[in-house]
Sequence to fold (259 residues):
Amino acid sequence: MSAAPSPLTPLTGNTLDSSILDEIRSGRLESLSAEEILIWGLGNFHPRMSLSCSFGNPEGLVLLHMLSRLEPSARVYMLDTGRLPQETHDLVDRVRDRYGVEVEVVMPEASAVQKMVREHGQNLFYESLEKRQLCCRLRKVEPNASYLAELDAHVTGLRREQNVTRTDTAKVELSADGRLVKINPLVDWSREDVMQFVRDNGVPVNRLHQRGFPTVGCAPCTRAIEPGEDIRAGRWWWESPEDKECGLHVGEEKDGSGI
Ligand code: SF4
Fold:
């Protein structure tokens, strides 16, 4: 009798090596440094691993800096939602020049965005949580899922202290459906750790950070914050903290619910 299919089969159809799964489950990886985690990821998954870099958070640029030195052909991608500020596009070009990396630009499906805008208008996201989730789903979550379907692992710049929804994030974990390895080397870094690394290594970051933007997402959904204000107040400021996820890093990645 054939064995039941493993729930841990990656989207590429390749079964994850059991020793990798054992390592993830053992918790041993939690003691590794960010760089050691990247070396582990490259050794096990390159080139079917890619860094998710928004070019709107210093965390992604810190990881890009580390990865480009460890493996010049390491893969990096960004989601171009069609609503990003000019400063983010400028940074992509600066990074290409500085590191010589090819940034894989992932875009939403044009017909889906056209239909949404025809039905709900350009700025639907201000009208309700549901419409904001719809926009994030079509412009971010679905293109991201399509891109990741070709991979076995992706690297993120998530940190535990960023949000109430991220406090139990592990350095290496499986996606909600168990089919993709998610590598989060900076989960235990503080914001100051990140900025210190940026200063020490001259890492290029988004110019909007100098103008009070702690993170930079889509232009209409991002703003500068006042000194002392919570860092997440700069994103979707009209929503409550527990709703402030775009759906890329929550369990309900397929439909964007819980965003
Ligand atoms: S952040 Fe705003 S503009 Fe960007 S995809 Fe989400 S709702 Fe749409």
Notes: The domain at 18-243 is CATH 3.40.50.620 (Rossmann fold). The longest strand covers residues 75-79. Confidence is low (pLDDT under 50) at residues 1-13, 250-259. The pocket of iron/sulfur cluster is lined by residues 81, 83, 125, 132, 135-136, 139-140, 217-218, 220-221, 246 (CB under 6 Å).
